[in-house]
Design a protein that fits this description.
Chain lengths: ~260, ~375, ~500
């Protein structure tokens, strides 16, 4: 469950605290970041980041952090509130089990984006890798969202229990937009794919395609407006192609597989 | 009788591979910087490097790198080599005196204390050619001959292990962080057109120096992240063909499997990789008839060669470097290129450390290995 | 059967009828194939006739009947067991070989029950079989040592040459040989239907192939046994694989046995023997007196079928089984089925059933090792059979090196069999091991086919579950991987033979 967010003063450029990450061991860097946050910084800029892990993990204040370079694995894991901007590609496990907040990646993301996400948003401009959005959950107003601008690899939305995943295929160029085993084990949540439907042989056993309703269209418009603004992409171009919706067919997909002991 | 009583260890790790497709030589300093960034992926219990093109003076000789732990082992090895090979030259592998400072060393550890304890005392290299009668009827190629010698030394000469046996290439490895080992072996003084580096996180608490990557046979070198869960059957399959898996690490089977399929059975690299990382039946069923027949045959014949379990592997030979994943991509691998250079690593930051602005960076898909070859004209 | 026939042997079982629940519908009496119940002012059991097949219990609409052991206390004697005493009574009265059915029921050690499996933890992740692909496909047949490729006109790689004949199984389980005669035609039909549904194979046993099974050709193995029953060119054409039966686990070294009671008109027609005679198959094939003769039979079958079908050889697990299997592989067999001493049958001398042969676990381990040592493992597929009771047994057999397992007893239990061990009488109340038309009707082949299909499905799910926890997604990566098994409570020598370490190592 999310807690109510404290009021935040508008960001001023002068307020950005700059931290140089060159050659810094991640423990040291993360300590500096946490110190800055607890000292009241609203915006932090990390420069020369290359491979430092666990950035912003567990931070529960609504601080803006700009990451210049390539952050290491698990950026934003378990975080609750910050807004991270990655100016480059990210590595594995972006937003792992995050509770709330936002992560924007201006490049590509690697595997395991948003694993166990409980709320908040992750926006990827380019492609994402395998196992995106695994076991995302939702409860009442806490609905996590992952939007990928390009393509994804296999096992998208595997075991989803809630939340929203949108894949736009803007870089696809006629290639496959999503990989294999889409939504396998899904028992909650929704996946939207833009441009063309997922071929039957690539869809897991659990999800089924359903028609979009007015509510879906309004939701997509709202989320994609925010997405295209953050990433400076063309909203109209994004909305110019149809979307296809996938939800689980049953909440107990494996009910028939088990039998009681005599 | 077959020996079923063995132990094997596996590991989590970090990989780096660099190749210049025009054969341009680079110092080891780059690969050391890249592997140092992957520090978190190892735990200091293993590291190693492979380098190609480092012995131009002895380019036609097989360069045996040996780790030996006593004078007796060394005598036994030398006696064996003298008997079976023309030994052109033998010398200690140069290592840095721990008290010397390496200009860019940023490891912060006291090597003087760490390294002498964990490295075997004798690190030697011998440049050899097989000593065989002119019209030998044993049906072996020079390569088979060398493989036999390597298996013999590893299995029968106590306290000695061959860690590389290719021409104009060599492997440097041991127990320690790779950047420390690179410092120890003075890798900045070598010039190679292919470098690979590996940081190891073995799950047995006692890493041992024979267990570090790369694993080699002839000029194959393999570095690997993950665990081969089919090790038990891969090993038994290889043993049928005379490969002895003595180094008790599952990466060893990858190396021998590639040697068997590519060198001995003559399968083209792409086809061999389709045997060890086979596409799923549901995808084979949808292939056009000819392609399906080939994949069915590969699966039927090479089922025991299938590498199962999560893995990312970079393997190299004198004419190229290949990066590949298991078929559901459970381990990371990133590739990049710029000009004639191709890079591969477990994490993008490893590449960015030495090539901050590549032309292209991508995550290879499962079942689609990245193959970088020396251009045709290059020697 | 009546009291005189019982002779010196006291009754074993009694029927206990709850008079308050019994509504006197007499269904139990009709159900009984052994004439063990009669009606005289109520349902009454006839002493000594009940064999505990439980058909009446299952059929009673009120649950009013149950079967109990007839209590009779003997003085305890661990050495001269009650069973031994009773067999002495029977032998002295009859002067004959004691006949029995099903498999060895003696308390020999089960190696399956002393093996445990590994699981992935931390260093190697499990795979989730419910959500990720798990491949069970298995090919039975001879494989070449390597694959050769060539480029086609478009520069793509394709296979050079042809692969030898292989059969595809969607899951590594087949139904083993049970002859038409020992089991009913409806049983055969149920097996054939299930084999087709599941993409596996059934084996007709040595009784010939009834024409009602012709539509199932692609899923049928026909047996060429020493009696050569029903073997003609049509028979060979109608099969996907031909099995030369040298022996079976329930009676190694001796031939098949179908008591005269079960040789009815249709059996007489299929087997081409007179009605009512005992169909005894010779102990050896009279044209196989040495290994090179086996080679001749194998190749004559291959020639007769134009090398389009693999040829299997079925042998019992005996002392020298590793060397024998090696010889059989070199003689040209494409598949070897090894039947361990727990194997079942419709009729066999009890003494042979219980005292001849060795456990399948040891046999498969030894054969798999030997074939690898000799570098010929790829020349044959190995099928393990003989007391495969559960998917756990199947999985352990595969871990020891089997390509697939064959089940018989388990399949019959799925059709209703309660292992009363009276198959040789031909009075099976379940309609399985009988030729009496009024009994055979009771087994609906459609229903039977579904029962068997569900059984195979359940075992396949369990196999996938285990492969997943072992961290592999293809059965080939587990097959023969002794590393994933450990023994518990086994001696060093037993572990050495099985090629497995003890748990804790």
């Amino acid at each position: 469950m999310t807690k109510p967010m404290p009021e935040v003063a508008p960001e001023k450029t002068k307020d950005r605290l700059i931290i140089d990450a060159s050659q810094k061991y991640y423990k040291v860097l993360n300590q500096e970041i946490r110190l800055a946050v607890s000292n009241g910084a609203h915006a932090i800029e990390l420069r020369n980041v290359n491979g430092q892990r666990y950035l912003a993990d567990g931070i529960n204040k609504r601080v803006k952090i700009h990451v210049h370079g390539t952050p290491g694995n698990n950026v934003g894991a378990f975080m609750d509130g910050p807004e991270l901007y990655v100016h480059g590609n990210s590595q594995e496990q972006v937003g792992n089990t995050m509770n709330s907040g936002k992560i924007v990646v201006f490049g590509n993301a690697s595997d395991v984006v948003g694993y166990g996400m409980r709320g908040g948003k992750i926006f990827i401009k380019g492609d994402a890798g395998y196992r995106v959005g695994i076991h995302m959950k939702q409860y009442k107003s806490s609905v996590p969202v992952v939007i990928v601008g390009g393509t994804t690899g296999d096992f998208l939305g595997e075991y989803m229990a809630g939340g929203i995943v949108i894949v736009l295929g803007l870089t696809a160029d006629g290639d496959e937009i999503v990989g294999d085993y889409v939504g396998t084990g899904m028992h909650g949540g929704v996946i939207y794919v833009r441009g063309k439907p997922v071929p039957a042989h690539r869809l897991g056993e659990e999800p089924a395609r359903v028609e979009l309703t007015e509510k879906d269209n309004a939701l997509l418009a709202k989320l994609l407006k925010e997405y295209s603004t953050e990433l400076s992409l063309d909203f109209d171009k994004i909305m110019s192609k149809p979307f296809f919706k996938y939800i689980p067919q049953s909440h107990r997909p494996y009910g028939n597989m088990y039998a009681n002991q005599p | 009788m077959v020996n079923h009583n063995y132990q094997h260890e596996s590991s989590g790790c970090g990989l780096v591979g660099i190749i210049s497709t025009t054969g341009k030589k680079m110092s080891g300093e780059q690969v050391l910087r890249a592997v140092a960034i992957l520090h978190e992926r190892g735990n200091g219990l293993g590291g190693g490097f492979a380098a190609y093109g480092i012995y131009p003076k002895y380019r036609d000789f097989f360069a045996f790198h040996l780790l030996m732990d006593s004078a007796e082992s060394k005598s036994a090895v030398e006696a064996y080599l003298q008997e079976r090979f023309l030994v052109e030259h033998g010398e200690e592998i140069p290592t840095r005196n721990p008290s010397e400072r390496y200009p860019n060393y940023s490891g912060g550890r006291n090597l003087e204390e760490i390294l002498p304890e964990i490295m075997p005392s004798l690190l030697w290299r011998y440049f050899c050619k097989p000593k065989r009668p002119e019209n030998s009827t044993d049906g072996l190629t020079d390569e088979d001959y060398v493989v036999q010698a390597v298996m013999h030394i590893n299995e029968n000469i106590h306290g000695a292990f061959v860690i590389s046996s290719g021409r104009n290439m060599g492997v440097f490895k041991g127990v320690g962080y790779p950047e420390d080992l690179g410092h120890f072996f003075k890798l900045e003084e070598y010039e190679a057109y292919i470098w690979t580096g590996h940081a190891r996180f073995p799950t047995n608490s006692q890493g041992w120096w024979g267990g570090a990557h790369p694993f080699t046979l002839l000029d194959w070198a393999v570095i690997h992240n993950g665990e081969i869960s089919s090790y038990g059957i891969n090993k038994r399959y290889l043993e049928m063909y005379g490969y002895k898996c003595t180094l008790m690490t599952d990466t060893e089977v990858v190396t021998y499997m590639l040697d068997l399929l590519i060198r001995k059975h003559g399968l083209p690299t792409e086809v061999a990789l389709r045997a060890v990382a086979a596409p799923f039946w549901k995808d084979v069923d949808r292939m056009p008839a000819d392609e399906r027949k080939l994949h069915e045959a590969l699966r039927m014949v090479y089922g025991s060669a299938l590498l199962n379990g999560p893995f990312a592997i970079i393997f190299t030979h004198s004419r190229g470097m290949v990066g590949m994943n298991d078929r559901i991509k459970l381990r990371p691998l990133v590739a990049a290129c710029k000009g004639d250079m191709v890079y591969m690593s477990s994490e993008e930051c490893g590449i960015r450390e030495i090539c901050p602005n590549p032309e292209r960076v991508w995550n290879p898909r499962a079942g689609h290995p990245v193959i970088a070859r020396l251009e045709d004209g290059v020697k | 059967m009546n009291q005189n026939k019982r002779g010196l042997i006291p009754p074993k079982f009694k029927q206990v009828i709850n008079r308050e629940l019994c509504r006197r519908c007499k269904r139990c009496i009709l159900s009984c194939g052994f004439e063990a119940l009669k009606f005289e002012n109520g349902v009454i059991g006839i002493a000594g006739e009940c064999v505990a097949c439980h058909r009446c219990v299952t059929m009673c609409p009120e649950g009013a009947i149950t079967i109990q052991k007839q209590p009779l206390d003997y003085r305890d004697n661990e050495y001269w067991t009650v069973e031994i005493r009773e067999e002495l009574y029977r032998q002295s009265e009859s002067g004959g070989v004691i006949l029995a059915s099903m498999g060895n029921d003696k308390p020999f050690k089960s190696y399956f029950d002393h093996l445990v499996l590994d699981a992935c933890q931390v260093t190697n992740p499990s795979i989730d079989p419910l959500r990720e692909p798990m491949e069970l496909r298995t090919y039975l047949g001879r494989k070449p040592e390597k694959v050769t490729v060539e480029k086609d006109k478009k520069g793509k790689f394709q296979l050079k040459g042809k692969m030898p004949a292989n059969l595809l199984l969607e899951t590594p389980i087949i139904f083993g040989g049970m002859s038409y005669g020992s089991v009913s035609l409806n049983t055969h039909k149920a097996l054939a239907m299930a084999a087709k549904n599941c993409g596996i194979l059934m084996n007709t046993g040595e009784g010939g192939l009834h024409k009602d099974l012709y539509p199932y050709t692609d899923n049928i193995i026909v047996q060429c046994a020493s009696g050569r029953f029903g073997v003609n060119e049509e028979y060979l054409k109608r099969a996907a694989m031909i099995e030369i039966k040298i022996g079976q686990g329930a009676k190694p070294g001796i031939g098949g046995h179908l008591p005269g009671e079960k040789v009815t008109a249709p059996i007489s027609e299929t087997r081409m023997i007179p009605i009512g005679t005992d169909a005894l198959s010779p102990a050896p094939h009279h044209d196989i007196y040495s290994i090179e003769d086996l080679r001749q039979l194998i190749f004559s079958l291959k020639e007769a079928t134009e090398y389009k079908k693999p040829v299997c050889v079925k042998i019992s697990a005996v002392h020298n089984v590793a060397a024998i299997a090696s010889g059989v592989a070199r003689a040209g067999a494409d598949v070897i089925c090894i039947d361990g001493f727990r194997g079942g049958t419709g009729a066999t001398p009890k003494m042979v059933r219980d005292h001849v042969g060795i456990p399948i676990e040891l046999a498969i381990a030894a054969v798999d090792d030997r074939l690898r040592e000799e570098n010929i493992r790829h020349q044959v597929s190995l099928i393990a059979s003989g007391g495969i009771r559960t998917s756990a047994d199947m999985i352990k057999a595969i871990g020891l090196g089997a390509d697939a397992v064959a089940i018989c007893t388990a399949a019959l239990v799925a059709l209703g069999c309660h292992l009363c061990q009276q198959c040789h009488t031909g009075n099976c109340s379940w309609g399985i091991a009988t030729q009496r038309p009024e009994m055979e009707r009771r087994l609906d082949p459609e229903w039977g086919g579904q029962q068997l299909t569900r059984l195979i499905q359940a075992w396949s799910y369990e196999l996938k579950e285990v492969l997943g926890l072992l961290g592999v997604n293809a059965v080939e990566s587990f097959r023969g991987s002794r590393e994933r098994l450990r023994g518990i409570g086994l001696s060093e020598l037993e572990l050495d033979i099985l090629g497995v370490k003890h748990a804790g190592r």
